[in-house]
Amino acid sequence: PATEPARFKVGEAVRARNIHPEGHTRLPRYVRGHAGTITRVHGCHILPDAHAHGLGERPQWLYSVRFAARELWGAEASPRDSVHVDLWEIYLDPA
Fold it and tell me: Is the pLDDT of residue 84 over 90?
């Protein structure tokens, strides 16, 4: 269960944090530091990073974030393409 309301809502601009934790993380390197848009709020779920290290479930809000291909790979990428990545709230900052 959620202990706090979701920090972000659909349509909000966010930026994936540029962090480099040791051990397990579900934050792909290719999105770190890049801006995207929340497209879906999946609800509150177990944070795999904490759970994998025996730190308990530490529930976090989970979002689908759309990243434009050009944001991730530069001007050579197609302007029509994008990638959706499911990211936990702890990985995101407002853009």
Answer: yes
